[in-house]
Amino acid sequence: MADLFEENTKGIEPLAERMRPRDFGDFYGQEEIVGKGKPLREAVEKDELRSVILWGPPGTGKTTLAHIIAEKTKGFFQPFSAATSGVPELRKLIEEAQKRLKFDKRKTILFVDEIHRFNKAQQDTFLPYVEKGTIILIGATTENPSFELNSPLLSRSMVLVLKPLTDEALEKIINRALSDATRGLGEHRAKLDEDAKAAIIGFADGDARVALNALEFIILSASRIVFSNSPLRQGYEGQARELENKPKDRDNAGGIKITKKMAEEALQKKAIRYDKKGEEHYNVISAFIKSMRDSDADGALYWLARMIEGGEDPRFIARRMIIFASEDIGNALPTALVVAVAVAGAVEHVGMPEAGINLAHGATYLASAPKSNASYKGLLAALADAKEHGALPVPLHLRNAVTNLMKELGYHQGYKYAHDFKDAKVAQEHLPEKLRGKKYYKPPVQTSNAPLLKKKGAKKS
Question: Among candidates 165, 147, 168, 159, which has minimal Cα distance to 58?
Fold first, then answer.
């Protein structure tokens, strides 16, 4: 029998919140982390947990896992958002945690959502209290912790990687919601055909929250049930009414039968599968870069469109275009870098969706430009020598003689000032003695400033 709270909130809370797992056994899709015998589960069950950083895409269970840990350890669960609160609020919560530990002998599990929103100086606030055991910190982030969190905090925490949920895990989550009459949608006796279920799973793209919210909307629409206070309904009223006016399929047992067509109509469109944090993110940006490198403007536009439609951060695309302009075009067309930087500025000033036009402008320009990776290859070769040979001494004639002792030691002697020579061209050695004669930069014939570089090819004395 449902408790009073569940009865009162069932029509208000979204399905994803109602179906939040309360035990490791119901926590699907992250068995590598919470399976029996795994370090995290053992630490929780023995009440020996130390601070944890949960890293993963949205909807993979970071918040849910924090709730389960708090329940299993009997700790006081204190949520905190780094996106909406600051250090003063944090200090107040820590003071309360100190009192709770002193007077009630109860640990505080401080769950910090979006912990990467705190800069590294703000993150230092946690350190003394984590070290003393005043709080057990559970930080959730969608960003790479090695870049976004400071080293002292990482060294004191267990970092766990939550992966996008597999199709099998999402199917289990959907089936559980359909059969649970207390917290889920069991009272509707809805049945999804396999294609409808696959459509929801594809739309969710590894995100349990998206899958459950989509499922709830489809079932409510098909059942002619409208919870006006449900956040899920906002923005979909017209669409819901249209679906509700259509004839409904029911099986012999009186339950609602959901078809693929009904699911896709409710979701408005088939989702483009694009995980902004996973492998597909890298696959698509790779295809975009390679299309521009191969001077295929059409391919570049298509992959650009895929990223835009998939919700990729336009600033990420612009940054990659800036890198491409120097790595793959370089001095073959120096203005390519100017255009790429201008596109990045336009993205910042204009914003989406109109900034997509700026991105298309830049992508087609870069794809159509002559190509040269001579600067990039030259850098790699120079880096290899710098690494292999270490800190070779700077030739004496290239050193500034700022003291009399330096002059006596031969600093700056024999240096030729370029502007004292015709066309400011001078033949003198600029590499360490061990590397004399090495050629790092080898521009192709089509490089726009190749004639200039050819003139500089005078023999060195």
Answer: 165
Contact 315, 350 (CB under 8 A): no
Q: Which residue has the tokens 């693929």?
A: 260
Q: Which of 50, 307, 8, 268 is nearest to 157 (CA)?
A: 50
Please report where in the chains the tokens 């003695």 appear, as a residue.
433
The tokens describing 224, both together, are 């002619």
Domains and CATH numbers, the chain: 30-161 (3.40.50.300), 167-267 (1.10.8.60), 279-368 (1.20.272.10)
DSSP sequence for 353-419: TTHHHHHHHHHHHHHHS----HHHHHHHHHHHHHHHH-SPPPPGGGS---SHHHHHTTTTTT---GG
Q: Which residues pair with 250 in a beta bridge?
A: 256
Strand partners, 256: 250
DSSP class of 35: S
Strands (E) in 217-367, as ranges, are 257-258
Give Cβ neighbours of residue 82 (< 8 Å, ≥ 6 apart).
Answer: 112, 113, 114, 115, 116, 117, 118, 122
- The residue written with tokens 């059409």 in the block is 298
Map residue 13 onto helix, strand or coil.
coil
CA torsion angle 235 239 245 249 (round to 10):
-110
Cis before residue 353, ω within 30 degrees of 0? Answer: yes
**Left if phi > 0, otherwise alpha if psi is -120 to 50, otherwise beta: which for 133?**
left
> Across-strand partners of 160?
54
Cβ pair 161, 61 in contact under 8 A? no
**Residue 274 binned pLDDT confidence (cut-offs 50, 70, 90):** low
Q: CA triplet 103, 108, 111: central angle to 5 degrees? A: 160
If we measure between CA atoms, which residue out of 140, 249, 181 comes closest to residue 1?
A: 181
Beta bridge partners of 324: none
Q: How is residue 87 written in tokens?
A: 């250090």
Per-residue pLDDT of 386-424, as tens digits, reads: 999 989 999 988 888 888 888 888 888 888 888 988 888
And the tokens for 287?
């295809």
Q: Are 244 and 250 in contact (CB under 8 A)?
A: no
pLDDT in tens, 31-57: 999 999 999 999 998 888 889 999 998
